[in-house]
Amino acid sequence: MPNHLKFITKKEFILFFGLSGLIFLGGFFALTSGPWSIAVTEVLKIVMVKLGLFSGSINNVETTIVWDGRLPRFIVGVLVGFSLGGAGTIMQGLFKNPMASPGVMGIDSGAALGAVVVLYLGLAAKSLFALPLSAIVFSILTLIMVFTIATSRGQTSISTLLLAGIALNFIFSALTSFVITLSTREFDVGRVIVTWLMGDLNNRSWEHVSIVFPTTLIALIGTLFFVKDLNILMLGEETAANLGVNIRLARNALLFFSSVETGGAIAVSGVIGFVGLVAPHIMRSLIGPDNKKLIFFAGLLAAVFVIYADLFVRLIVKVDLKIGIITSLLGGPFFLYLIIKHRKRFEYM
Amino acid sequence: MVFFLSLISAANCQESARTKTVTPLDMDTLKNALSFVRGCNTAEDIWPRVVRYSFKIYDFKTDTFAQEEKTITIKKKPLRIIPHAVGVADILWAICPRKRLVAFNEFSADPEFSFIAAEVRAKGPIFQSKQTELIIGYQPDIVFTVFYSGGDFKEKLKQAKIPYCDLGYFGTIESIKDQILLIGKIIGEEGNAQALVKLIDNKITELKSKLPQRTKPIRVLYYDEGGYIPGASSNFNSICKIVNVINVGAEQGIKSWSQIDNETLLKWNPEVIVVPEGSNLKIQLMSNKVLSHAQAIKNKKVFYIPGVYLRVDSQYMVLSANLLAGIIYAQPS
Predict the structure, then answer these.
(1) A67, A188, A192, A323: best mutation site toward chain B, by most B Cβ within 10 Å?
(2) ipTM of predicted assembly, 2 dp
(3) How far is A61 from chain B (nearest CA, A)?
(4) Which CATH entry fits the domain spanning B42-188: 3.40.50.1980, 2.60.40.10, 3.30.70.141, 1.10.357.10?
(5) A35–B225: do the CB atoms touch at under 8 Å?
(6) What is the pTM of this model?
(7) Is some CB atom of chain B closer than 8 A to the CB atom of A59?
């Protein structure tokens, strides 16, 4: 078959099955392991009965543990990873900068501030939806602020966007620190805030899935409409304009969808660092810069990172280590390795 | 906005465990008794005096206790005293003539942390814990610091030549009694301190005598925000011991505090769960699908308890034990 007719290359095929296999394997461990000992056959039976593929009697307690405890936690992990990987891909493509991630636009810290305020006011303890709602609203507000600052006479400058994002990052981080300082009076609230800022998938339920699933889906579908434009934008704005791309619309839409993805992910998991930065970077080196594919592959790899970090925290370490610490501890050195390996290339960017 | 306001009003409607619970001992009488104690001073009033004491702290890194011997020299009877922690303020309030207490920190004036908040606010003045300048300005004869007071704060006191006594672990009723006797010796009120210790022992005996006899102790779990559970070295564990119940966190090997997930909570399956008042944890736990199989949830044995009773590290731990006994054995009406 001619190369241009191939939907997927052999390498991508292997990568796709490899990553999907890792996600399934992670799912297997996530569903079959936990403090409550449940036989593997029983877990499989529960899943099949619940999916309507098998009829038989299943234990009530074990069904609740697997179906309402372990499974939503795993699905939240997959969706959070996929969202962060997708958002990172958009940001790196849009800014033509491998260092870009949702964090550079201040979206992470905006969402974090929204969540921390709700935690401090005690509203998060009163409703499961208060914190995610606030995180998403704050992430979108951050985006609007960044755009308002960076837009002059109808023109939005990419470099001003980046600088405004960095400035807002500092402001929101300072405000978050201030709220943490206030919360130290009520040390139980302070403890919850700090835990949340380290990223956590503990006790996630179907309600959390119902929050992050729509944001992931909406952002993914929305991004797919503009992903071709994103590829062209990477060639430069002048070229893109010559090729008929509505630069303003494409850029604004892509930034909006990446904010929705990031806000949705942070809303249910807390701040999980480095995944959105490292996953697109690794995948770009493996499959190339085509964002149509990169968004999926980076999403899958980021999902693998999040799932295995959660399994590590849940099943191996078993102390109060949080998922965000693991992703940053592993992602940071790996990213340093990439920088050192490719430093010549970065010098000319 | 309407959503947030409705949440806040729902919180305000929460029933108070303190006002609805029938306790073995009368709460107000007990609180008054523990707030003012006078005994006979048999020790000689000799100054300066050198006091040697054992300073015990909990090392959170290793989950073990570290202990060292300390010595403090007090040149003259301290007439201007400042406590730098709620527990110390509670003790001084009971055993020291109140005119000698020159200032209190903000936590002692906060009802979320202190049983004597109203009295402290009325007496004043109140300082913020980090306002070292203000504390120096009061020219105290002694400041009672605690192990978490901060090295910078203690260094400032040292530079200002203000004597301070650094107190260690307050987490159990036994350690609290040791601190009471030590504080009594340092301020020259040994008789009052001994009387307070005796009162604590008597009240615990009286409380225990009123508890129902059970062949198997009730297993109680304290569930805090974020799923944090106190273990063996926590004051909650000490409160549980006073009222003959098992602290499930300690039973399951938690030392200080640890976070657990719902599945673990279900596995541990406590008979009673207590949660801090002001939170929405009871509703959250009762509506959680995974926990619907836990016996405390099935039997609707999840109870609110005001945070001040759970944070206590003074003689008022007896008050907390009395309330917990009321909640567990009698249950709110």
Answers:
(1) A188
(2) 0.72
(3) 6
(4) 3.40.50.1980
(5) no
(6) 0.79
(7) no
